[in-house]
Each structure stands twice: as C-alpha cells, then as structure tokens.
Amino acid sequence: KIAVFWHRRDMRLNDNAGLYHALKSDFPVLPLFIFDKTILDELDDKRDRRVEFIMRAVEEMKEKLEKEDSSLLVKYGVPLKVWKEIVGEYDVAEVYTNHDYEPYAKKRDGKVAEFLEKKDIPFHTYKDQVIFEKEEILTNKGTPYTVFSPYSKSWQEKLHGSKEKNFYVKPYPTEKYFKNLFKTKKLPILTLEEMGFERMPDEEFPPKKVRDEKLEKYDELRDYPAAPGTSRLSIHLRFGTISIRELAQQAMKESKTFLSELIWRDFYQQILWNFPHVGEGKAFRSEYDRIKWRNNEEEFKKWCDGMTGYPIVDAGMRQLNATGYMHNRLRMITASFLVKDLLIDWRWGEAYFDKKLQDYDLAANNGGWQWAAGSGTDAAPYFRIFNPTTQAKKFDPQNKFIKEWIPEINELDYPDPIVDHKEARERCLKAYKDALNG
Ligand code: FAD
What is the CATH architecture assignment of 131-170+212-274? Predict the structure, then answer.
C-alpha cells in the first residue's frame, strides 16, 4: 500500500505542508503531478511559457526524487479520470495534497475526494501556499475583511501573536523524511510535444531567490519600471517552486514593504475563497455591473498591441507581449487606462492578462483588475483616475523604460493618442455616475 502526494501549486519538495504530512504517514509516498487536460485545452498558443515552466519544475522534482531511489508519477488527462487510472495501477491507501482556492480547483478536488471516498481512500488537504487562509483572519464581527489595511494589521498581529515564535512561517522539514518515499524505478514521462505543446528551450525565467540587498532597496525602487527593483518571484510563488514561509521570513527581516506585498497576495486569496463570485466574472460590488461599457474592439486591439499613443501604457503592454511579465506600476496604469480612459469592460483586460502573464493568478489578477475598475475590495473612489502622462513623469522620469520599449517614440509612425485624457476622464465619470445612481 502507498500514499500518493498530489502536487499542484506547490511544485517543490522542500518545505511543503502536504508532502510533509504524507511522509509522516504509515505508507511509503509516491509524489504525483497531473498535466490537467481541462486547463491545457484552453490555451490557444502551443508555445506557452507557463507550460514550459511547469515542465521544467516537473523535471527538476523528478530528478531529485530519483536521486532518492523514488520517482515522480507524471500523468496527462482530466484529473478525475486520471485518479481512476491510478487507483487501478497502485494500491493507494491515502491521498495527500494542498489547498487550492480557485473555483475550478474546488470543484475538481470535490469530485476527486468524492470518488476516493467511495473507495475508502481518505483525501487529506493542507494549507501551504499562503500564510493565512480562508477564515483565519476575520474582523471582530467574525466576517472576512474586504479592506486591505485592517486585514494587514490583523494578519501581522496573528503572525506575531503565536505562542511559539514565528510559528506560522516555520518551514516543514520534508527532507528529514525522504526515506519514506516509495522506492521505484524511474517512471516514464510524456513530452510536451505529446501533449500538443512546444518546448521553449531558450526561455529564461527569473532566479528562484531574491537577494537581501535587493530587498533593502525595495521600498525605494519598487515603483520604477526601469529599475530592477522588485523580486521577480511572482512566477515562483504562482507555481510554488519557492516556499511562501521561507520568503515571508526573509521579508520579515529585510523589508516591511515587501512583506506587505506578500500580505496582498494572501488578501486576494482569501477574497476569492470568501467571495467566490469574483472568480466567476462578477464585480465584487454588484452595482458596478451596471456600467455601460463602450467596448470598442478597435481600441481594445490598440491597447493590446501597445499602440494607444500613450507611451507609458504602450511600453507596459509591449513588455507584457514580449516577455510575459509586466511591472506592477504598469499593470495599474494599463488597467486603469483600459477601464477608465477607454471605458472597456475590465473583464476584457483580465482575460488578456490571463492569456499573457507568466505569473497569471486568478486571485491576484482579478483583485488587480477590480481595484483598477473601482468595483472591487479596497477600491479607490472611482473619481480618482490615473493620468497616464503624469504617471509617466513620476515613475519613468528619464523616459528610460519608455525608450527601451518604444524605440520609434520620436518618429512619425508612433501613433497620436487615441483619446484625449481630459475628455475620456469626463466620459468615464459620467458612465460611473449613471451606473451607480441608477
Ligand atoms: P514584487 O513587488 O517583488 O512582489 C513580491 C510578490 O508579492 C509578488 O511576486 C506577488 O506574489 C506578491 N504581490 C505583489 N503585489 C501584489 C498584489 N497587488 N496582489 C497580489 N500579490 C501581490 N500578480 C500575480 O502574481 N499574478 C497576476 O496575475 C497579477 N495580475 C495583476 C493584474 C493587475 C491589473 C495588477 C494591478 C496587479 C497584478 N498582480 C498580479 C500583482 C503584481 O503586479 C505582481 O504580483 C507583481 O508585479 C509581480 O512582480 P514581482 O514578483 O517582481 O513583485
């Protein structure tokens, strides 16, 4: 009999909550990863950086496990069907995994748990990808927080209030128990080509670590897209190739501001868990679903292509299209421009980022978009509208970032602005007012 540990958003062997509990069970543990056909089938581009990233993480874990005379079971298919196969192939006593808060994942896990239960196989799940989850941080009234600052305060009180110092950021020492891995010969693995994707061997991903010296300057530099001031760890946090506990410990030592960004990440995950309608295409505040969007397709295309004539917006979109990454300040500016200046439904922008971002994460992306639209939690009042020109002056004062992405900036073929910001601002205010008063 064996226990299976199912990796999803936790593609690492070190400091992994569910894996740790599996290794301490009475059964030898076989780790598993499923390439989920349901998700892969929705990707139009068969050269997808995220799929490449996942494959590299799978290969790395498999190699490490094989050094321990174990292996990684890698499957491709619809998870429920895959599980039916697995229980036919192995004598499975228990299944372990970590929580996943997305609506699709909740449904998937529900179905798998139900199937396993019928076979008398317990399905154990643990908190791993955040420091605090679900209903762990609540207001005095026992309700979830919907505003960041008090949430963050409460989050920090809980973190520092534990009896055992740093209890909530204590790593799980999985390595100590590797002897409990299931001994097996190397297991076969499908190639990406066999799953309909292409390898991207030249693609470089940011390193898995951030240096202390970088975090020391985080506060000062993080808002300037031309300065390499942020950690670039988002893809690793998304797929769990690094541990949030280890990173939070480093943040606690080096930078309060950086820690605060990690708290934002927990914040949006708990929003998605407690208000799942935001993950199903609805505004957090329903009155914002009354806004009459213009939804001009030509303008949307110009925004996507980085051809709006507003250099800071275009530079951000071009960075996204070329690299799969966009600096946070630019995510805020481009999102605000689409929603407020062009009056295009934030869901269009959300979907475009979903397609392009290598660190795409439903909770953070949706949170960011609803923040920009003013329809979400902790939203700035809707009449506060970013001015793309002053934003550029403030955050790219020497035009360094802009020039890097728009080499033709001073030439004739760079377009004129597609809207006049002042007029667009008035138009937006009216549309919002009509929706909110009506
Ligand atoms: P750092 O500044 O080094 O931050 C460290 C980590 O903190 C990030 O890796 C991320 O995990 C977390 N973090 C930082 N800011 C936020 C935030 N506002 N909300 C939640 N987590 C945060 N982040 C994603 O990970 N995936 C997304 O799909 C995503 N979409 C966004 C869409 C919009 C419209 C906006 C405004 C923001 C979005 N963000 C998203 C948040 C943020 O822009 C990125 O996390 C950040 O730019 C990633 O770069 P970094 O790792 O260098 O960040």
Answer: Alpha Horseshoe (1.25)
